[in-house]
Task: inverse folding
């Protein structure tokens, strides 16, 4: 007869859970930033890929500057020391070209958090990227996108949900990133964080599709994700530094900022989690790219090439060379001088 299990009212058997360790905030890291200082940043990169940056007086006092990110900052700081300043390289993609694109605004907020956490963040602008075809691989926007993908350690993907799924603008960017280029897989082993904005109620259709895309591109998609419903209600009004007074501009944090809410907290969770996973995985990049099937394929190719090389050499010796330039005797006739 089986022994009776006493749950003592613990129907979910929580007593079997692994004991968690509470990590308390470190006051020494309050307001700490690992962002690249302007005088140490590449001015061309800053101008082209960092449109999310705010004026110093805004960036030093906005909601991102006030976030408690001690654990991730400590990890990032230790990683910078270990790698001698090699920052995490993050490419950010968004999926709308509207003048007031909420996916772009959300992508900028992601970028600001990551920048504070010491990442080298570059936001790709899809404007001018041609529709995927088989003839425009040399287009400068296609090459720019592929170069950024190859450069990166991880990606942030933010798409609007339109007609129940991600937009064509976003999918077109992914379609231009090849799954493989020769023996190189441009996205394999990268980490990925995903988010969506919706015009209506809460939905997860776009992030579900983004997760499928990430898996297909052989990326490690973090468990957490962000979905912002009714995005038009979630951002503050745009502000113009040339029109608004300085005090008003600073108070508005530059304008077009994500308002306080559980949605904003979730976005911070995702960016923090993304940095942690990327730090852990990047140092083992080659390990995670090592697969049995690909090792077997490479070995089979190597054996085949060696076998073919041996056959060519043997053919030259026996007078059946495919090219007489590689043989001295063909059917017993000295052809070395021909």
Result:
């Amino acid at each position: 007869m089986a022994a009776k299990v006493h749950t003592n009212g613990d129907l979910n058997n929580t007593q079997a859970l692994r004991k968690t360790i509470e990590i308390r905030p470190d006051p020494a890291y309050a307001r700490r930033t690992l962002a690249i200082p302007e005088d140490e940043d590449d001015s061309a990169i800053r101008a082209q890929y960092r449109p999310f940056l705010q004026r110093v007086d805004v960036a030093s006092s906005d909601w991102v500057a006030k976030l408690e990110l001690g654990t991730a900052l400590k990890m990032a700081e230790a990683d910078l020391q270990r790698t001698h300043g090699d920052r995490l390289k993050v490419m950010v993609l968004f999926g709308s070209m509207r003048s007031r694109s909420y996916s772009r605004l959300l992508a900028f907020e992601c970028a600001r958090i990551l920048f504070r956490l010491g990442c080298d963040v570059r936001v790709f602008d899809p404007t001018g990227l041609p529709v995927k075809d088989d003839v425009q691989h040399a287009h400068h926007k296609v090459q720019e996108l592929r170069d950024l993908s190859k450069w990166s350690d991880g990606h942030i993907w933010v798409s609007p949900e339109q007609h129940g799924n991600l937009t064509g603008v976003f999918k077109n960017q992914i379609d231009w990133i090849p799954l493989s280029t020769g023996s190189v897989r441009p996205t394999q082993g990268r980490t990925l964080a995903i988010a969506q904005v919706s015009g209506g109620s809460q939905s997860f259709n776009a992030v579900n599709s983004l997760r499928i895309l990430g898996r297909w591109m052989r990326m490690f998609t973090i468990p957490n994700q962000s979905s912002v419903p009714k995005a038009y209600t979630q951002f503050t009004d745009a502000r113009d530094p040339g029109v608004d007074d300085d005090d008003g501009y600073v108070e508005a944090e530059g304008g077009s900022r994500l308002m306080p809410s559980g949605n904003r907290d979730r976005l911070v969770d995702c960016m923090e989690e993304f940095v942690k996973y990327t730090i852990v995985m990047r140092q083992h990049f080659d390990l995670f790219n090592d697969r049995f099937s690909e090792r077997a394929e490479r070995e089979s190719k190597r054996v085949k090439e060696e076998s073919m090389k041996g056959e060519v050499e043997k053919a030259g010796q026996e007078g059946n060379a495919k090219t007489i330039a590689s043989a001295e005797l063909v059917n017993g006739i000295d052809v070395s001088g021909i």
